[in-house]
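Reproducibility note. Readers wishing to regenerate the assembly model reported in the main text can use the exact inputs given here. Chain order matters: entities are listed in the order in which they were concatenated for prediction.
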Amino acid sequence: MSVSGSLGVVSRERQSTFAGLSDFRQMDVSRVRTFWRTVERIPAGANIAEHDGRKRQVVVVSGWVSETRILPDGRRQIFAFLLPGDVATVNASSHVGSRGLVALTNVEIADAAALTAGEQGERVSASLVDAVRQREERLFDQIVRIGRLTAKERVLNLLLELYDRLDAIGLVKENTFRVPLTQEVFADALGLSVVHINRTLQQLRREGMLTVDRGTVTLHQRHKLASFACYQSETQQALERQPRRAGGHQQD
Amino acid sequence: MSVSGSLGVVSRERQSTFAGLSDFRQMDVSRVRTFWRTVERIPAGANIAEHDGRKRQVVVVSGWVSETRILPDGRRQIFAFLLPGDVATVNASSHVGSRGLVALTNVEIADAAALTAGEQGERVSASLVDAVRQREERLFDQIVRIGRLTAKERVLNLLLELYDRLDAIGLVKENTFRVPLTQEVFADALGLSVVHINRTLQQLRREGMLTVDRGTVTLHQRHKLASFACYQSETQQALERQPRRAGGHQQD
DNA sequence: CGAGACTTTGACCGTAGTCAATTTATGTGG
DNA sequence: CCACATAAATTGACTACGGTCAAAGTCTCG
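Running the prediction on these inputs yields the following structure tokens for the assembly.
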């Protein structure tokens, strides 16, 4: 008896269904057009390794990438998901035990060095610095998720983060967005087993917190979910960091 | 019936017992002496906040610091431990929900900006850049620990990391080192409960993998432990990243 | 010696893992 | 358009790792 939906299917997915450049936010569009020639295509499932010798910094233009480590005994941990606009440093080809970048969908990436070279270099460069900062901040969120949240909280928390990030690049429509991830991938990111991810999703659905249909996710009552899952959007975090005035408490 | 040992006691510890500057590694000694006047003392348990306004980068000179986040419901997650020589960026005063630096022992810190200002600035600066890189690498290790390792593995893995880091700054003698941490702190770092940390330590002791006596830890057969706990020292990681020759496999 | 912080135990519970079988996509070739 | 192959999602049964609660026991320090 089907419980009515999966988290998604990656490999067989028709490309460009969801993350075409057309959806890219303004600034990035121009940025990318200018350096279109430097864009490199990576097929789903492939590793993103350095070309010849040393490491390099790349920017995701379209598609989903995961930052992963495989343990010697086969266990796998996904550190982060990289979406269009995100930055990452490519290490060596991902040996067991070291960190690697794996394309979860068909992906387009650009070399950061190339992007910062042009005339807009200054601005792009600043943008990349910020992307790096955000990435680190998300690593901390990830640690909290797997270190201190329950399965339900982890799933919700991650989905809420993905919502915000996808929303920022225009990939959310009516509280709904595509998550081209296998439940197994989800499990490896959240430090849970596939089976448990499956059951947790079912429970969340039964409780009406979200809807999942073939890789399309809808979050209901995001505010409630956020407080339930200890989720703080990045903008909220920024606000708390800079409480303009120490006094004057406000309701809500 | 006492099982014979605790992980350690922090607050009441006589200061300077273990991490005096005298133990500091060469390069750092000179670095610190030159800027001695810029050193700031933080008492155990205190927060390390920014002084007046903006964020700043600080270097730990002596003592242990934790990078922490407190969740709205009281749960706590420790992201990392900072030892002498480590770098961190100070955010705003640690509100609930945001990241904060907490001194676990009496601590001495220096302002990174001040350190890079002097004549040796160039060299120091490079050293700091590397420290930042190492710190990030350790965040990934932390994610693997709490995401994919069992309790026993987590404890060992963390102790092995601490061993290497303390060894690098001359704070290990005969496989033994001081860990001025409460079991509760350990628990919050490893995403476990205090009770379970306690029992796990006992188990590890019974199995002869380590010895703990009043905050002094000794690891037995580090190599075996390392393989058991999926631990890779940083130097090992670096080696795998740069396999000089692809061929020529070696035994061991 | 007493107070408070830490560690240790015991009893019991529950979340999440494992294993193995089944069902449901998603495709593919004929 | 259908039969078959494969990846992914679901289920059920059972296990176990780790959490919770509460009560000692220890250690330090004033």
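We highlight two features of this model. Chain A touches chain B at residues 69, 71-73, 75-77, 79, 91-92, 95, 97-99, 136, 139-140, 142-144, 146-148, 190-191, 227, 230, 232, 237, 240-243 (CB under 8 Å). The first strand of chain A starts at residue 40 and ends at 42.
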